[in-house]
Design goal:
Elements lengths: L14 E7 L4 E7 L8 E2 L4 E7 L1 E6 L5 E4 L3 E4 L4 E5 L6 E7 L6
Antiparallel strand pairs: 1-2, 2-9, 3-8, 4-7, 4-9, 5-6, 5-8
Length: about 100
């Protein structure tokens, strides 16, 4: 078999799943019910955040919080200070790609 298959959960429960973590990329599936999210932190690589469902509330650096709907891809450069949250009733589901993969 040439291909390698990866799967991720199809749940509404809080999840942070590291699907692919190799020397090329990190591919992370995240699910956040209302009022859940990630603490403030700095991006350790270039990030590509795809909003699969719900609304992403994201605070970058000293900016006001911006809200991005399903179907949006947000690109952030390495080192960006951020806080990701779900302030809406609908479940927030994201795919986050880190490229290149962070150096360990």
């Amino acid at each position: 078999m040439i291909e390698k298959i990866y799967t991720y959960s199809l749940s509404d429960e809080l999840k942070i799943e590291k699907i692919i973590f190799d020397e090329n990329i990190n591919y992370i599936h995240m699910v956040f019910p209302k009022d859940e999210g990630l603490p403030e932190h700095n991006a350790n690589s270039n990030l590509y955040i795809s909003v699969i469902r719900g609304h992403l509330s994201i605070t970058l650096g000293t900016q006001e919080t911006h809200v991005y709907p399903r179907g949006t891809v947000v690109r952030l450069p390495e080192g960006t200070r951020m806080k990701i949250s779900n302030h809406h009733n609908e479940v927030l589901e994201l795919i986050v790609v880190k490229a290149p993969a962070p150096k360990k």
